Each structure stands twice: as structure tokens, then as C-alpha cells.
Amino acid sequence: MKKEKMEKMVAPFLAILVFATVFSGCISEKPQETPKEMEEKKEPILIGGSLPLTGKFADTAVWIKRGYEYWAEEINAKGGLLGRPVKLIIYDDESDKTKAANYLEKAITVDKVDLLLGGYPGTACTAQMPIAEKYKMVYNSMGGHMYSFEQGYKYCFGGPPLMGQWWADGFWGFIGTLPADQRPKKAAILTMNNVIGEACRESIVNGCKKYGIEIVVDDRYDLPLADATPLVSKAKESGADVLFANGFFADGVLTMRACKSLDYNPKAIFQSIGCIIPEWISELGEDGNYVFSGTAMHNKLPFEGIDKLNKVAQERWGIDAPQYFLFGYCWMQVLQKGVEGAGSLDQDAIANYLRTHTISTIGGDFKFDERGLPEPYMYCTQVINGEVELIYPLNVRTAEPVYPKPEWKKK
């Protein structure tokens, strides 16, 4: 009886021991998850919006998209944002501001994105910024020029902005370094008839007033521009010795060709938008040289991270980092700094961090005011020997300016 009793008492313990041994064996046979597998199980942070990947703004927007995508690639390689991978959702708004607004709303309400991508150009941003405010989501981009930043928005930032009202300020800084007798005396302004053209025109007109330059032509034209010859002919006949081609890439190309065909040789030609992308020289060749412009970003600026992005662009596209590639990267970098500073995806916390801290980027340091803007600034550029060089301010100059503009070379 004692033996049977003992066997009854030991049996349950033996069963438990066998179960534990088998169970532990099952566990040990299951392979441990790798860090990569664990990372892949994390829900990605969705970041969405639109860019004009087709239509009249596509030549520039493709570089912004590449900047966005490289930022995402880089941050994912470093472990993600807040420890989570990021995923971009980029719609093609076809250079239509209404579609840009609709796609941003779709990204918010249908895709349920965690963060917003900034749009391009200013016309799209003007339409998108109220959407961002409506849903109380942080939106960082070139902005919709000064008008949009005067609406009292809480969640919109321009880091860095492409502010039309500042666009020619760097050029006027350069003009101010010239002896008075070498400065232009008469100006012709040819402005595309939209909000961007009007914004840029403000800085052009203000500079003319400052330096006593008479505005002898001040014409507007609708896009798309079929032929710039009549406009350029009027500018030449007026005797204007500085021409402001206040338009986009396509109409700027037409204007340069008309200047050459009419043998119009002002002291300086200022092209508002489009002459700092590689396609300018690809399209015009040496006829695209000597044009001045403005920018808030440049691949030769002495800021941390620029050299690395130049190397990336050389490896992938055989050129130094185009300015709009840098813009796209920098806009995402500002958003990243806001998220990391807030330590969360809470939109109010992100906006508050951006408004109360200095944000260091590849475009320099930004301290945002109540409008979401940094202190006014603009660099003056000039295309020289096919390269976009920095001309002003003097402490960042990368080449001596060519002024007055040489006469056209005849073939």
C-alpha cells in the first residue's frame, strides 16, 4: 500500500516534469526574431500629400520628390522616426491647385496619415495650408508666399520658405555693392499672371524704388506662354538695361531664346523661378548662362549635411545636389526635428516645439516667428559656365559675378 501510495504521489510531478521538458523544447526550437523582423512588425508612420509630378511644375517637383524619398530612405536606415519606419504617400496633383487640396484632404481623411508632406508650388501651398489648419496638422513647405503666412495659421511653417516677397532681395544686395554709375537705370518687368508672379514682383518693385531704377515696362502674361517675342521686343525698345523675367522654367526658356533672337543685351537678366535646376542648362546650353536669381537653398552653402547630399546626388544622378532636392530634404528634416523634439506624433506638441526652439538644418538655423517664418533672407545666384553659383551675401560667394552680361554669341 505504501508503494502504491508513493507512486500515486510521484506520478503528477513526473507528468508536470515531462510537460515542462516538452514545452521548453518547443520554445527552444522556435527561431528568435531578428531586429529586422521585429522592426518590420512595427506599424509605419504614414506621411502623405501631393506634388505636381506632371504638368507645368513637374521639372522642379521631381527633385523635391527625390529629396523626400532620400530623407525617408536615410531615416529608415537609421531605425526610423520615433523607432518606427516611415512610409511616404505622394499623389500626383498634375500641377492643379484644386487637386493638390483634394489630395491632401484624402491623405488625412482616407489614408489616415500621421504627418503631412509639404506641397509645391506656392499656388498649391495656398490651397493646402487651410486644409492643414482645418485638421490641426503640422504642414512645413515653401509656403503660399506672404499672404498665406498672414492668416494666423497655427500649424503651418516655412522652413525654409520660398517667399516671393523676398525673392529678389539677394540680387538687390548685389546691386548695392556696385558703384552707383554701374547700376541699371531702367527696368522691364515681365510677370506671369498668378499669385507667385505677383509675390515675386513685390520684391522686384521694392528694389527698383530703393535704387532709383525707373520701371519702363511692367507687363503681365497668362500661362502657358506660347511666344515671348512680343514681350521681349517691348522691353528692348524701352531701353531697359535690366530685365526681370518673372516667370517659371518654361516661359523663362522662351524669354531667353527671344532675347537672343532679338539681340537684346541688358546689363542683367533676373529669372525668378526655374534657372537653378539642371534642366535650365540642359535646355539652353551656354545661352542659359549669366542669369541671376534668388534662392533660400544652395548646394555650396557651408552647412552640415550639404556635402553628404552632394555625394548622394553625384552617385545617383551624376550632378551635385540640385537646389530643389535640398529643399525637399530640408522640409522633411524640419518636420523630423519637430517630431523628435516633441517625442510624439501629437500635432500640438510638434507645432509648439517648432515655435519655441532653434531648428538646425542643411539650410541653416531657423527660429520661427508667430507666423511660422524665419527671419527674412535670400541668396543671390548666377549661372556661370553652366553652374549655379552663389553671388550674395559676400560671405558665401562661390564665384565672381559676371556683370554686365556679355553679348550673345552668334553661331
Q: How would you describe the overall organization of this protein?
A:
- 44% of the residues lie in helices and 16% in strands.
- With 411 residues, the chain is an alpha/beta fold.
- It has 2 domains: 45-162 and 302-366, Rossmann fold (3-Layer(aba) Sandwich), CATH 3.40.50; 166-295 and 379-396, Response regulator (Rossmann fold, 3-Layer(aba) Sandwich), CATH 3.40.50.2300.
- It has a 7-stranded mixed sheet, with helices on both faces. A 3-stranded parallel sheet has the order 2-1-3, sandwiched between helices.
- β4, α6 and β5 form a beta-alpha-beta unit.
- α13 crosses α14 (347-356).
- The chain is globular, with a radius of gyration of 28 Å.
- It starts with a helix and ends in a 19-residue tail after the last strand.
- Residues 5-30 have low confidence and may be disordered.
Low-confidence stretches: 5-30
Largest sheet: 7 strands, mixed
CATH domain topology of the largest domain: Rossmann fold
User: What's the order of the H and E elements?
Assistant: HHEHEHEHEHEHEHEHEHEHEHHHEEEE
Which class of secondary structure composition applies to the elements?
alpha/beta
Give the CA-based shape.
globular
Count of DSSP helices?
A: 14
Content of β-strand = 15-25%
| CATH homologous superfamily title of the largest domain | Response regulator
The rounded distance between the terminal residues' Cα atoms is 120 Å
CATH architecture of the largest domain: 3-Layer(aba) Sandwich
CATH top level of the largest domain is Alpha Beta
Count up the domains.
Answer: 2
